[in-house]
Specification:
12 helices; 4-stranded mixed sheet
């Protein structure tokens, strides 16, 4: 019997990769996407354009801030699995729109779980919640499932509410509900406002002589960067486990934003060195002295998380999951894509 999976945030990086992954396994996909005045389906256009796949793909308009909409979609589709990947997911933006971030990210999760409970789908529908390493904030390193949470942004606070709501509904109503605490995961489908893609796209534009420099915020922030394609596989594995639980998904290695910049420029044959301190620090071409990277304080967060590095031992042991793409391979994949796209 064909399994049905509802994916919220289907048009995002993770949603599109998960859609590809599950369709290869024979799933019928129900994709929830927000209404927009412009086309926002670029990441899943290959599905729309493939007649052989469209029969197994059913798009719905929806928004996590609309409980009646969520209830209607779940009631009419009766999915076997729900992957909640929709969110206001930009940390810096969450400081500017904290109420909306809480409504979509925190209460949106509650609305889905309530729909499962109200519709009495506890024994049928399994639920995956996209949690985030941002809930750890500045705490002990590396971070595991046992690490205390100290969120440092409206986004992280909303996601922590969603995390504990998922745990509570699992324990109170016996719903098969799990949290995937995913550390930074990137790829060619990453949004262009996120630092990793901002870097690779800017470096590609510099290579093609379409810009002279670009600006960033905190160059010394350290993150555990993995591949989105690797990470969506862990979501499916969590719902295939015998018992529901929560898992950290990470590579176990962290790199500064500076290192990401250096690796991206290295791909086009440019060696970057750094001069100055604080807001006056610049990244220059070691050979020519040309300034390619500057610091702009507008990108600083009011409260910063200095380092995120995950310990995925539990996932490796219980789910048999491990990352297959290393840091250099990830940056190279993103650079190749952006160089070709801009060309």
């Amino acid at each position: 019997m064909t399994k049905k999976a509802l994916i919220t945030g289907i048009t995002g990086q993770d949603g599109s990769h998960l859609c590809d992954f599950l369709m290869e396994k024979g799933y019928k996909i129900i994709g929830l996407k927000r209404r927009s005045s412009s086309f926002n389906t670029k990441r899943i256009d290959h599905i729309y354009n493939d007649i052989s796949q469209t029969k197994n793909f059913i798009p719905y308009y929806g928004d996590l801030t609309d409980s009646s909409n969520i209830l209607r979609v779940i009631q009419s589709t009766q999915p076997d699995e729900i992957y909640n990947l929709a969110a206001q997911s930009h940390v810096h933006t969450s400081f500017e729109i904290p109420e909306y971030s809480a409504n979509a990210d925190a209460l949106g999760t509650l609305r889905i779980l309530e729909a499962i409970r109200v519709l009495k789908l506890q024994k049928k529908t399994k639920f995956y919640q996209a949690s985030t390493s941002e809930i750890f904030g500045n705490t002990e390193i590396p971070q595991s499932e046992k690490t205390p949470f100290r969120p440092r942004s409206p986004y992280a606070i909303a996601k922590l509410y969603a995390y504990w709501t998922t745990v509570n509904y699992r324990e109170a109503y016996k719903i098969f509900a799990v949290n995937g605490i995913l550390f930074n995961h990137e790829g060619p489908r990453r949004g262009e406002t996120f630092v990793s893609r901002k870097v690779t796209r800017a470096v590609a534009e510099i290579y093609h002589k379409k810009r002279k420099f670009f600006t960033l915020g905190n160059l010394n922030a350290k993150r555990d960067w993995g591949s989105a394609k690797d990470y969506v596989r862990s979501m499916w594995l969590m719902l295939k486990a015998k018992k529901p639980s929560d898992y950290v998904i990470a590579t176990g290695k962290s790199y500064t934003v500076k290192k990401f910049v250096e690796e991206a420029f290295k791909y086009i044959g440019v060696k970057i060195s750094w001069k100055g301190k604080g807001i006056n620090e610049v990244g220059i071409d070691k050979k020519t002295g040309h300034i390619y990277v500057k610091v702009d304080p507008k990108y600083f967060r009011p409260t910063e998380v200095f380092e995120l590095r995950g310990d995925a031992s539990k996932a490796k042991k219980e789910l048999k999951w491990k990352p297959s793409t290393n840091f250099k391979e990830l940056v190279a994949e993103m650079m190749e894509h952006d160089l070709n796209e801009i060309k």
